[in-house]
Write a structure and sequence with these properties.
Chain lengths: ~650, ~270
């Protein structure tokens, strides 16, 4: 990765560099008609050039914004770079957002051009066209179903490129001059943060910020052009974009786009990525699948699996960390590697993974240790859209389940007296688009970014995050209440999918629970418990008992901690529907919006605190196609077993 | 793949068809036609003769009376006593009410069987996967992959059909029929036994096939709402006789049809 960051200070310049030095090495792969198709760096550069010229011919100018709506597709990534070539700013939008949610960013950024993946996305854009008068051009990648659309704004990707090639032939020096005009300090991209409250904010990131952070992390992990990454998360999330756009452009590695959301596991197995990123929920879903399949296996295999997973739990992570392990255990682990861990890694598509990151939310210690113990180098990472991701990374050999590691080179960290984490880094964002108040609030005069995360340094200098500063509250007896901490502890149980804790300013803590349909459904089948669906299971006493056990364990755990002993969960209910981003209950990155849920289900919260045994609820739900319906149900409320704080004193 | 959708001339004509099994008159002097690119539904109560009608068109049964004409090489031609193989060669494909798939074979292989008629190299070359056979197989595989992509079943490409849920098996059955590149597609109760979501998916696929591939579709269906939504014209049978024929609106207002479905007191 020897290049001069002063010369190659923008993404288009990096692309030209790769096209020159590794023009025939793979840049992007995509499975089409069952066969992996490869775009080499040279091909990518050609595609981008034609596209950029086409956009220029249609009037996209320096500083204007271009929306990109769709899944991970080579052509959409090419569109991102094409906009940057012209000095325009790509704005990736979440492909699963409802049409109404797309209107705000498009209006906010005065977007006149959009590149959409397919008919679904085009339909959404056309729907909001009346609210977005500036949106004049929509280009689509996949023409299926669009043949009879007669709107003037629509044009296919191919025709745009044709127009580009014509324009390029007429204006030969244009493209290279435009690329040369780009500077590191120019805005490279804008990402809308999902925003747990209010409108999303457009985070403006410069070329320098993204390239600097991508390069720092790549250097730390020794990434090079032989690495391979699977791009399967929403590209509008910087947690995907940094790994599938910024880092490959810096290091020259290859990204692979899966065929569809359902084929990811099979595609992973075929590609064998070497560098992998997954938020905890994805890792958890994978582990659930493995566990369920193991339960269906024969008795011999089950026992072998249980035995060697015990061995792995005992010594696997230590071997990975390079700490001292007896020769007998090493031999046993080696045997386990042949019989269980190796095949398991292969099934997960992680045989070749050198470095894997998890981030986005807290990860359960069991889950984290599971992956490390079977030999996958899973590490934690801390960062956000505003910091171009890389703030903290756990270095090899210093991996812990409850911290996010020390600062990545180039980053300065400090904590306020309120325990808020502050960051200064070359990767910091320039501003929130058209929102100087929010910018001033988040970034102070000395350039410190206020993360809003509460935490502290552990004795080794690793950062430990416990909750959001604004969410850390007090119970009415003035003891500490960290809702996320409690919710995460609950969510670490495979049966619990989501939990929402209430307690700020109240005398005790109560929670809403969403169970995991797959895990609990399987559990019910094994008990010959017939059910018709989620709503049915949610009303079963058996399920309440199961959830109650999980809460009891959390309470026991909390009672050991003098600070949090009063935060034990006293009462709970199982929600009648799964919390859903379409109903505004979760953010697009699936974080619980506690305040909104508290308002929306106000009667339920009241019932929890009034000591009722049942409560009737009726709620509006929004389906994926935008229609609304309503669900009504009678919910039960149960008490959870709590433990005296005295137990903590005895234990201490 | 994308031809104009406009409904064209008559592509299939059934005239005065009667079919009996011993004393049972399954079809009694039934006549109707199917136009190019349209979605034509055949509906009726249980035992009305719908499946028999499809089997007659398909060449499984040979009617005692009446003629069937099919457009071949630009002109309507009568066909007599053709067996299903010949009918298939003439460009008519069908799906089955109770599915006709190889449960132990993968989705890919099942759809590939639909290409069988279009394969020309001999068995020996195919077995050796040699020369022209290899080239041919690649071409057919591409056609099959287009169908897999079209029906959005990429995730199940290598899954044995028997392990798939019923709704997906139906989709594979449709894929197998599509693999023949038919001019006319006969669908025997494509939505039977499906839940609402699967039905909606299937409707979308049928309309997409009709729209994008320009395939003419003749379908039998019980679910009236589906029929009324997606058909251009509807034939109504009752006790082997045609009692109604026209657009969904016309059929809905037809007194004979209402009587057949709701029953009348005699």
């Amino acid at each position: 990765m020897a290049f001069d960051i002063d010369k190659l200070d923008t993404f288009p310049k990096l692309l030209a560099h790769h096209a020159q030095v590794r023009g025939s090495l793979p840049a992007i792969r995509e499975k089409a008609l069952g066969v992996w198709q490869t775009w080499a760096w040279g091909r990518l550069a050609d595609e981008v050039r034609a596209l950029a010229c086409g956009l220029a011919a249609h009037g996209l100018t320096r500083g204007a914004h271009l929306a990109i709506v769709g899944d991970n597709r080579p052509r959409l990534y090419a569109a991102m770079c094409a906009a940057q070539c012209l000095g325009a700013i790509p704005v990736p939008l979440y492909q699963d957002a409802a049409a109404a949610e797309m209107a705000f960013p498009i209006q906010n950024a005065d977007i006149g051009f959009a590149v959409a993946e397919d008919q679904e996305q085009v339909d959404k854009l056309l729907e909001i066209l009346p609210q977005c008068p500036l949106l004049k051009h929509i280009y689509f990648d996949d023409p299926r179903g669009l043949r009879n659309y007669a709107q003037d704004a629509l044009m296919s990707y191919e025709r745009l490129q044709e127009a580009g090639r014509e324009f390029d032939a007429k204006n030969p020096g244009f493209f290279d001059a435009e690329v040369a005009r780009g500077k590191g300090a120019d805005t490279a991209a804008m990402f809308f943060t999902s925003g747990t409250t209010g409108h999303p904010k457009g985070v403006v990131l410069t070329n320098t910020a993204l390239i600097d952070r991508a390069a720092a992390a790549a250097k730390m992990e020794g990434l090079g052009d032989s690495d391979v990454v699977m791009a399967y998360l929403p590209p509008a999330w910087i947690g995907q974009n940094i790994f599938s756009y910024a880092q490959p452009f810096v290091t020259g590695y290859c990204i692979c786009c899966p065929e569809s959301a359902e084929t990811i596991i099979a595609d992973m197995r075929e590609i064998g990525p070497t560098y992998y990123f997954a938020p905890p929920r994805v890792l958890e879903a994978l582990l659930t699948t493995v566990s369920i399949r193991m339960e269906d296996a024969g008795a011999f295999k089950r026992r072998m699996y249980a035995y060697f997973m015990d061995v792995a739990r005992r010594v696997g992570a230590k071997i990975l960390d390079g700490s001292a392990v007896s020769t007998a255990d090493r031999l046993l682990y080696a045997l386990g590697d042949v019989l269980v861990y190796g095949p398991l890694r292969n099934v997960l598509g992680m045989s070749r993974v050198r470095v894997a990151y998890t981030a986005g939310e807290a990860i359960g210690p069991d889950l984290f240790v599971f992956y490390r113990s079977i030999g996958i180098n899973l590490k934690q990472l801390y960062g956000s859209t505003e910091t171009s991701v890389f703030v903290c990374i756990q270095p090899n050999g210093q991996v812990k389940s409850d911290t996010v590691g020390p600062a990545v080179p180039g980053v300065e960290l400090k904590f306020t007296p309120q325990r808020e984490l502050l960051i200064r880094s070359p990767g910091l964002f320039k501003e929130y688009y058209k929102n100087p108040e929010a910018t001033a609030e988040a970034k102070d005069a000395e350039g410190w970014f206020h993360t809003g995360d509460a935490g502290y340094f552990d004795p080794d200098g690793h950062v430990k995050i416990i909750d959001r500063v604004k969410d850390v509250g007090r119970l009415s007896d003035a003891t500490l209440f960290a809702p996320k901490y409690i919710e995460n502890k609950l969510k670490f149980f495979p049966y619990v999918k989501e939990a929402v804790a209430f307690g700020d300013g109240r005398d005790r803590v109560c929670v809403f629970i969403n169970f995991d349909m797959e895990a609990v459904g399987n559990w019910a089948e094994r008990r010959n418990l017939p059910y018709s669906g989620y709503v049915d299971l949610a009303s079963r006493d058996e399920v309440y008992a199961l959830v109650g056990e999980c809460i009891e364990k959390v309470n026991l755990d909390l009672s050991q901690d003098p600070e949090l002993a009063n935060s034990q969960v006293h009462r709970f209910l199982v929600l009648h529907k799964e919390l859903d981003a379409d109903d505004g209950e979760l953010t697009r990155t699936r974080k619980v919006r506690r305040g909104y849920i508290g308002e929306r289900y106000q009667p339920l919260v009241t019932a929890l605190y009034e000591g009722l045994r049942t409560v009737h609820v009726e709620a509006q739900v929004k389906y994926e196609d935008g229609r609304t319906g309503s669900i009504s149900a009678d919910l039960k409320i149960r008490d959870a077993k709590t433990f005296p704080a005295a137990a903590a004193k005895r234990a201490a | 793949m994308s031809e104009g959708r406009g409904i064209g001339e008559v592509i299939l004509e059934v005239e005065g068809v009667s079919l009996s099994f011993g004393g049972v008159r399954a079809l009694n002097d039934v006549s109707f036609d199917v136009r190019e690119h349209e979605v034509r539904a055949i509906i009726g109560p249980n035992g009305a003769g719908k499946s028999s009608m499809l089997n007659v068109i398909n060449g499984v049964y040979h009617p005692q009376q009446g003629t069937i004409r099919m457009k071949m090489d630009g002109a309507l031609r009568e066909f007599h006593d053709m067996d299903p193989h010949e009918v298939a060669l003439a460009g008519i494909a069908r799906t089955f009410q109770n599915l006709a798939l190889f449960k132990g074979m993968s989705v890919l292989d099942n759809i590939m069987t639909g290409r069988n008629l279009r394969m020309h190299t001999n068995l020996l070359l195919q077995a050796l996967h040699f020369g022209p056979a290899a080239k041919e197989e690649i071409a057919h595989r591409e056609a099959v992959e287009l169908i897999i992509d079209f029906l959005e079943i990429q995730a199940y490409r290598k899954t044995p059909v028997g392990r798939l849920p019923y709704g997906l098996q139906k989709r594979v059955d449709l894929g197998r029929a599509l693999a023949m590149d038919p001019n006319v597609l006969l669908l025997d109760e494509p939505m039977a036994g499906m839940n609402v979501e699967e039905k909606q998916d299937m409707c979308r696929f049928i309309l997409d096939v009709n729209d994008q591939m320009g395939t003419t579709i003749v379908l039998i269906e019980h679910d009236m709402s589906v029929v009324m939504d997606i058909s251009d014209r509807v034939v109504v049978l009752d006790y082997g006789k045609k009692i109604g024929d026209g657009t969904p609106q016309e059929v809905r207002g037809n007194q004979a049809v209402i009587d057949a479905y709701l029953g009348v007191s005699h």
